[in-house]
């Protein structure tokens, strides 16, 4: 902010609050993996859409009231917000082009994150089967998810990868599995990537000390060549 950017930070919930289920979506992956895949795909699409539209509404309000001049606009995605950042950037692009993005502790392919994460249901706002899944159940779930989901796609992530992106990664992050972090890196066409010998929450402990370096990177990335 001191450097003159408008900063949008994004960390959306995985699913909406539902009082009927204690604020969680129920995913019976073991009992009906195909239905669970379709349900989860719908949750992801709705969550990403609502979050992106909400941020657009905030920026529109700021522009109309003269409280902010969103240029250059920097997108900071944190954890689930880093996963959703490509969708947010694409949704905002026409009215609020993103100059650059910094994705912190993120990944790609939410279905694989769900299957491999060490996060608890309270963190995910999802109730999922806690037993051991066999390979066929995992494959049925992910296949159903990928057939149904619209916004958790390689094309949208690759679109963001055409712009300057910085990844901050905890090398021992078990909340966002390594396979998902590597997939995000490939889909973004291997942007600059800062690696730290910490886990998911450890990354947030070291993050304040990296503020100046991140601002320097942002300034270099948007400076006219």
Structural class: alpha/beta
DSSP E strands, number: 7
Distance between the termini: 23 Å
- Beta-strand content bin: 15-25%
Q: What radius of gyration results from the CA coordinates?
A: 18 Å
Determine the number of helices (DSSP H or I, runs of at least 4 residues).
9
Residue stretches low in confidence (pLDDT < 50, at least 5 long) are none
Structure description:
This protein is α/β, with parallel strands linked by helices and 225 residues long. The chain is 48% helix and 16% strand. The protein has a five-stranded parallel β-sheet with strand order 1-3-4-6-7, with helices on both faces. Helix 2 (80-92) links the parallel strand 3 (73-78) and strand 4 (98-104).
Considering the chains and any ligands shown, give keywords for the structure.
two-stranded parallel ribbon; 5-stranded parallel sheet; 7 strands; 16% strand; single chain; 225 residues; alpha/beta
How does the SSE layout of this entry go?
Blueprint: E1 6-10, E2 25-27, H1 33-65, E3 73-78, H2 80-92, E4 98-104, H3 110-116, H4 121-124, E5 126-128, H5 135-148, H6 154-160, E6 165-170, H7 178-187, E7 192-196, H8 200-206, H9 211-222
Parallel strand pairs: 1-3, 2-5, 3-4, 4-6, 6-7
Helix pairs in contact: 1-2, 1-5, 2-6
């Amino acid at each position: 902010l001191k450097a003159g950017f408008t900063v949008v930070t994004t960390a959306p919930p995985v699913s909406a609050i539902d009082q009927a289920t204690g604020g969680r979506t129920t995913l019976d992956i073991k009992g009906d993996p195909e239905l669970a895949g379709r349900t989860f795909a719908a949750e992801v699409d709705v969550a990403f859409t609502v979050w992106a539209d909400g941020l657009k509404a905030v920026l529109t309000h700021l522009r109309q009231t003269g409280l902010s001049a969103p240029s250059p606009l920097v997108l900071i995605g944190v954890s689930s917000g880093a996963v959703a950042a490509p969708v947010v950037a694409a949704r905002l692009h026409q009215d609020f082009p993103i100059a650059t993005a910094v994705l912190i502790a993120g990944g790609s392919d939410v279905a694989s994150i769900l299957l491999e994460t060490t996060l608890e249901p309270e963190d995910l706002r999802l109730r999922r089967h806690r037993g051991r899944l066999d390979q066929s159940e995992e494959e049925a779930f992910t296949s159903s998810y990928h057939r149904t989901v619209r916004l958790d796609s390689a094309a949208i992530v690759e679109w963001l990868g055409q712009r300057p992106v910085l990844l901050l990664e905890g090398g021992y992050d078990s909340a966002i599995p390594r396979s998902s972090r590597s997939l995000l890196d490939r889909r973004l066409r291997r942007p600059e990537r800062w690696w730290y010998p910490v886990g998911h929450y450890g990354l947030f402990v070291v993050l304040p000390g990296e503020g100046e370096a991140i601002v320097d990177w942002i300034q270099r990335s948007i400076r006219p060549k």
